[in-house]
């Protein structure tokens, strides 16, 4: 079981949404909710992951937010530093723009954009070396779950991670368990199934590093205000990576409240 001192994380993955004006409105609405009911950094880390060309405008819009909201990149290059890599943004360049957080290994990157294990590992390595905090996504497909391979697939992804994280870098790792069949489908893993996988991940991490008991493990896959409270009650679910519901400020705020409440 996790250390009860883990501060939860609730991160909104906006994916390839929305238009600039709508993203500004979304942030203004979120700021308004946080003004009415602040959520401290000790209660919950809140993050939003906009499209790359909205990272800096959103960061700017958040400067006067009542509660801190982290700006998270949805991806980064597997190439480090600077150089002749058209269309790419490295960890160093994100850091140079004060973007300190990045999602890596989201199933959409792995499945649609060909991020294989070696690419994902290179991205983690570069992100950590640039000083970023990585939200590392793992999860099994429906076929793998039905074949009874879910645990093996997910633990292998944790082992992949362990090959590139140095002993003193684990504090910059957050894990997000996202069963692929639950992403954007409206299907959520039951809290029992999600907790069972999170406990396995926790055990796997604890075998790899003494930091394992302190690493936040987020659940992702059709998280909504309606299921957030139950998920937040699970001992090894330390937050949520939220897709669709993060595009609605009221829903996203409710989810953050559900996780922040457990720290009250
Ligand atoms: C995601 O893409 O990370 C995700 C969890 O999406 P959704 O909440 O829409 O299922």
UniProtKB/TrEMBL annotation:
GO terms for biological process: gluconeogenesis; glyceraldehyde-3-phosphate biosynthetic process; glycerol catabolic process; glycolytic process. Its main location: cytoplasm. Pathway: Carbohydrate metabolism; erythritol degradation; Carbohydrate biosynthesis; gluconeogenesis; Carbohydrate degradation; glycolysis; D-glyceraldehyde 3-phosphate from glycerone phosphate: step 1/1. It is found in: Cytoplasm. It is an enzyme of class 5 (isomerase). GO terms for molecular function: triose-phosphate isomerase activity. This is Triosephosphate isomerase.
């Amino acid at each position: 079981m996790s250390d009860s001192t883990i501060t939860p994380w609730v991160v909104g993955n906006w994916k390839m949404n929305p238009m600039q004006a709508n993203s500004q409105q979304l942030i203004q609405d979120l700021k308004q909710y946080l003004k009415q009911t602040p959520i401290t950094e000790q209660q919950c880390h809140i993050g939003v992951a906009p499209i790359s060309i909205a990272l800096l405008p959103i960061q700017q819009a958040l400067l006067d937010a009542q509660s801190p909201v982290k700006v998270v990149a949805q991806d980064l290059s597997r190439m480090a530093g600077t150089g002749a890599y058209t269309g790419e943004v490295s960890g160093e360049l994100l850091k140079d723009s004060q973007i300190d957080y990045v999602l890596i290994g989201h199933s959409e990157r792995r499945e649609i954009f060909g991020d294989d294990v070696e690419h994902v590992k290179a991205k983690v390595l570069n992100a950590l070396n640039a000083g970023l905090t990585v939200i590392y996504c793992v999860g099994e497909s429906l076929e793998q779950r039905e074949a009874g391979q879910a645990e093996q697939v997910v633990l292998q992804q944790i082992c992949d991670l362990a090959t590139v994280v140095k002993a003193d870098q684990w504090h910059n790792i957050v894990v997000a368990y996202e069963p692929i069949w639950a992403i954007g489908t409206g299907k959520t893993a039951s809290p029992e199934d999600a907790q069972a996988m999170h406990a396995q991940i926790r055990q796997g991490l604890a075998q790899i590093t003494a930091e394992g008991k302190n690493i936040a493990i987020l659940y992702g896959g059709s998280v909504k205000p309606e299921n957030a409270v139950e998920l937040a009650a699970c001992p090894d679910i330390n937050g949520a990576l939220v897709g669709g519901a993060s595009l609605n400020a009221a829903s996203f705020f409710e989810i953050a409240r559900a996780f922040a409440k457990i720290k009250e």
